[in-house]
Amino acid sequence: MITPADEALLRRAIAVAAHAVALGDAPYGSLLAGPDGTVLAEAHNTVRRDDDITAHPELKLARWAARELDPETAARTTLYTSCQPCGMCDGGIARSGLGRVVYALSTEQLVALNPASGAWPTVPHDGPALHDEARAPVAAYYRPTR
To answer: pTM of the entire structure?
Structure first.
């Protein structure tokens, strides 16, 4: 359920997106708020500027949280973002341990505004293969120490 406090922080994320456009960057903005609603960090999309396909604001903030916050604090944060996170960002958000995401535009609404944003190809995957060879370094890494 989205509260009036969520809406205020979501408006700030939208303002970050608008500022990104003013800077010549793509129109996506996000912020990470602590449990009390205090803004901990903000970011906007710099994919073109940085020549980095991973420079989405949601992923930048997920990486920041993983570096800067203890797991208990991260679990009580909320990421506010101007558009629904993509699959890449969703993975980073989950692994960083953030507690919640609130977004303005859904993926479907974004694609309606910019059809090219939904035109990513499907990449075929083959596997699993070479199980015994691949498991050796993984098993060695996770082997319990005594």
So the answer is: 0.92
